[in-house]
Amino acid sequence: MSDLIFHNFAVSPFSEKIRLIFGFKQLNWKSVTVPIIMPKPDVTALTGGYRRTPILQIGGDIYCDTSLIAEVLEKRSPAASLYPVAVNGLARTLAQWADTTLFWTAIPYAFQPAAIPSIFGNISAEELQAFSADRATMRGNMPRTSMGEAKGQLLAYLSRLENMLNGNAPFLLGAQASIADFSVYQALWLIRLAPAINPVFDAYPKLLEWMGRVAAFGHHQSEALSSAEALAIAKNAQDFDTAERNFVDSHGIALGEQVAIMPTDYALDPVVGELVIASENELAVRRDDDRAGTVVVHFPRVGFQMKRAK
Q1: pLDDT at 1 over 80
Q2: Can you tell me the mean pLDDT for 22-29?
Q3: 49: left (phi over 0), alpha (psi -120 to 50) or beta
Q4: What is the pLDDT of residues 231-245, one digit of tens each?
């Protein structure tokens, strides 16, 4: 099977979610370090404009968004499932809440001045300003959460999560870890990294123990790969993950039409290409790039929007 090539950077919470899933599933992977801010020319060559981190590359197939990446890894290694049958729907729903509501509550709390050195290391004032400007561009018109609101809401959510662990099960939904555990963990991870602010967890001992259990999965085995090497792999790819899926037409758009796909919330950078997959859970386009060659870029349906390209 083709290598799992993971485009990520060290302090990306959503990257940490997938790195821990590699550990959970004991999957070897190749790590391409991407820039933390734009421009990202090699990422753009692969995705056609999608700029969020991380992405997963398998040959010439490019998978965007961690909800879809997790599904791909589940197919690669179905043992130790991320979606235990008894809690499948609940796990997916809790994961979606964590990747959106909990994440955007925790992020303003995490980026307090006292926490910045623990998160970014010796970042200069100019670099921090560039990072802040880049993220402001990504968020666009998304509402901003004040520190007071973020702290109040975070404490309420931590209390609810602590309550979920009161039955002494090791993970949020029982004896087995699920996609919910990795999604909730990533939302809280940056706070956990910063001693100046992580005492917020001290009132929640079961949650602290749970965080330790999730972190213990580790990242398994990875080796570095350059972005140039990743581009070459994409350009030389012959086979693509476009096997027939059930066609679900919710837009009145046929396979083969030119479409634009982008997120529904932030980083609204459209990816244009020929629609090759429109299934219940997935959308994908085939596109050509001078540097990456022919690639197929995959997205989950939930959290993304599609329209005909102009």
Answers
A1: no
A2: 98
A3: left
A4: 999 999 999 999 989
> Is 90 exceeded by the pLDDT of residue 271?
yes
* Residue 190 near residue 106, CB atoms below 8 Å: yes
Contact (CB, 8 A) for 286 and 309: no
pTM of the predicted protein model? 0.97
Contact 261, 269 (CB under 8 A): no
Structural tokens at position 16: 């940490």
CATH number of 5-79+222-308: 3.40.30.110
| Helix (H) or strand (E) run with residue 56 in it | strand 55-58
Q: Concatenated DSSP letters for 116-133?
A: HHHHHSS--HHHHHHHHH
Indicate whether 85 pLDDT > 90: yes
* C-beta of residue 214 within 8 angstroms of C-beta of residue 182: yes
Residue 23, CA distances (Å) to 5, 18, 61, 245 in order: 15, 9, 22, 29
For 159-193, how does the pLDDT look when each residue is reduced to its tens digit (9 = 90+)? 999 999 999 899 999 999 999 999 999 999 999 99
When the candidates are 1.10.760.10, 1.20.1050.10, 1.20.1250.20, 3.40.50.1950, the CATH number that belongs to 85-215 is 1.20.1050.10
Average pLDDT of the residues in 282-296: 98
C-beta separation of 84 from 174 below 8 A? yes
Q: Domains of the chain: which residue ranges? A: 5-79+222-308, 85-215
pLDDT at residue 133 tops 80: yes
Average pLDDT, the chain: 97
CB atoms within 10 A of CB 7: 24
Backbone angles phi, psi at 215, to 5 degrees: -60, -30
SS3 sequence of 257-308: CEEEEEECCCCCCCEEEEEEEECCCEEEEEEEECCCEEEEEEEECCCEEEEE
Rounded to an integer, what is the distance from CA 35 to the centroid of its chain?
Answer: 16
Which two three-digit tokens encode residue 281? Answer: 């859970």
